[in-house]
Design a protein that fits this description.
This protein is an alpha+beta fold and 509 residues long. It is built from 15 helices and 18 strands.
């Protein structure tokens, strides 16, 4: 429902408290240790942000990562294995210590890391297939503070073009003359941000000449910390998002979208870029509670968008990913190529402008969750996505995103093998193809071992907690997950990790 007022100051007074939006310490917090907090799955990020900041100094806690949006619920971000930003961080689901759910028989069940660590690698990111999740217990850190120095840099400087991209192939509005020394410094700065920063993300609003670079680190020093964004700025952001939604919904604007795509796109892009902060002096870094820094933009729920995101595994400069260690040197040129391929594709479509919202990229770490796209990405991932306005329906957007995806799927490792690039589960990806093959078939092959593991552990949970796979499938699955998890592959089944023929005791057949 629009407009959503969740982000506005005072919206908490309209909240009806229920068991599903409760927040409590699972056990008393201890200094300098992880804190366990039990939350109802209906708790929004805004409610959780307020709760974290309201704690006493000794008890103040924070998630180290989160999605930007404050209106989304913690249950909604956990189930599809969402992520934050920073190569040192896994997914949100990796931070789940326990999960409570109502099973297919209506019984309350609990799975936790201390009692069932293997089962938690499934339960923490199970897409709701276990049942109705009511509560999560999350692992939080003691509160720390951001040192945000967001900057608006020329596109070529923010993420330099890959070496093979010739100057004459760079769109003229984006080209700037750079000496060899300037190029080397831009490359070193980009790599340092991507590799080392606590939080690392980049935004390019279509056809603007600058990239918003939001890369920062943290401190335990709270002196000088301020509420961010301020209440006045939150109201301003609310108005800005409503205006953008009007731009894409009003009849006059729909005509503008159809007849003058460049005008609408550049209008939205300039509004978006101008709304973001630009800190040129490191001494003026934005210091605020970490959880505020994670939610630096508010009210973005009020802008309806379409969004296609894929996770590209970072590769070592030498050797193969399977042999790499987390501190190995990384081949960042593959990331630069993916970024610039998306920009160049946008310019090839500039007469129609299917992409009318940002190109975004975050660097993320590996995950231990069975069905996480990042699992097995030893060095981490480049999470890259293209967005557009929500009313961009029809074949143009589908064709455009397929063209971008085709470029991303051309990337190869040092042995010449295609990378195991995978989509974000919660974004648009069904209906796409990968090198001419339906993406669902590509994913079933890419996740082949993970599917075997998921099915086996899923059956173990069912047997241990007194329900059957057939019952859960009937109540909680859908057409996509039926095809992905429950259809038998070549008449082979899995029992305790061993593929056999016939019918399994855990209900898969």
């Amino acid at each position: 429902m629009l407009p959503n007022i969740e982000s506005l100051p005072g919206s908490q007074y309209f909240l009806t408290h229920t068991e599903l939006n409760s927040i409590d310490f699972f056990r008393p917090p201890e200094p300098n240790k992880k804190r366990l907090v039990r939350v109802g799955t209906a708790v929004t990020n805004q409610q959780f942000r307020r709760w974290c900041i309201a704690q006493t100094l000794d008890n103040a806690s924070t998630l180290p990562i989160n999605v930007i949006m404050v209106e989304i619920t913690l249950g909604g971000s956990n189930a599809p294995i969402c992520h934050g930003s920073g190569r040192s961080h896994p997914t949100l689901s990796d931070l789940a210590y326990a999960i409570e759910y109502v099973d297919a028989n209506g019984n309350m069940q609990t799975i936790s890391k201390d009692k069932d660590p293997t089962m938690m690698t499934l339960a923490a990111g199970c897409f709701g297939l276990l049942g109705i999740v009511t509560h999560l217990t999350l692992e939080l850190d003691p509160m720390s503070y951001t040192l945000m120095i967001p900057q608006k840099l020329p596109v070529m400087q923010a993420i330099p073009p890959p070496p093979e991209l010739k100057d004459e192939d760079i769109p003229p509005p984006l080209f700037i003359k750079m000496t060899a020394e300037e190029r080397a410094k831009a490359q070193a700065d980009f790599e340092a941000h991507a590799r080392n920063d606590f939080y690392a993300e980049w935004f390019w609003f279509p056809y603007t000449s600058k990239v918003w670079v939001n890369c920062w680190n943290t401190t335990n020093d709270s002196s000088g910390a301020q509420d961010y964004p301020s209440k006045g700025n939150v109201w301003l952001q609310f108005v800005e998002t409503i205006l953008i939604q009007i731009i894409q919904s009003a009849e006059a604007m729909l005509k503008l979208q159809k007849d003058f795509p460049w005008a609408q796109t550049t209008l939205v892009s300039k509004m978006g870029l101008n709304a973001l902060p630009d800190v040129t002096d490191p001494k003026q870094a934005i210091k605020t509670q970490l959880i505020n820094g994670l939610h630096f933009r508010r009210a973005i729920q009020n802008v309806r968008v379409r969004d296609t995101e894929f996770e590209i595994p970072l590769q070592p400069k030498y050797g193969l990913l399977k042999d790499a260690k987390f501190d190995d040197e990384i081949n960042w040129t593959l990331v630069q190529k993916a970024w610039w391929d998306a920009i160049l594709t946008a310019y090839r479509y500039k007469d129609q402008c299917p992409q009318r919202m940002p190109l975004e990229m975050r660097i993320t770490g590996p995950s231990n969750i069975i069905m996480a796209p990042y699992r097995g990405y030893t060095l981490g991932a480049a999470s890259i996505e293209v967005l557009t306005l929500g009313n961009m329906q029809g074949p143009l957007w589908d064709k455009y995103t397929q063209d971008v995806l085709d470029k991303w799927m051309e990337l190869k490792d040092n042995a010449g093998n295609y990378l195991e690039t995978r989509p974000h589960w919660a974004k648009e990806w069904t209906g796409k193809t990968v090198r001419g093959e339906p993406i669902i078939e590509y994913m079933k092959r890419s996740y082949g071992k993970a599917i075997v593991e998921f099915r086996d552990i899923y059956g173990q949970i069912a047997a241990k907690q007194g329900w059957t796979v057939a019952q859960a499938r009937e109540r909680f699955s859908n057409e996509l997950f039926d095809q992905f998890f429950f259809e038998e592959h070549a008449n082979r089944v899995v029992t305790n990790g061993v593929a056999t023929n016939g019918v399994t005791t855990n209900g898969f057949h």
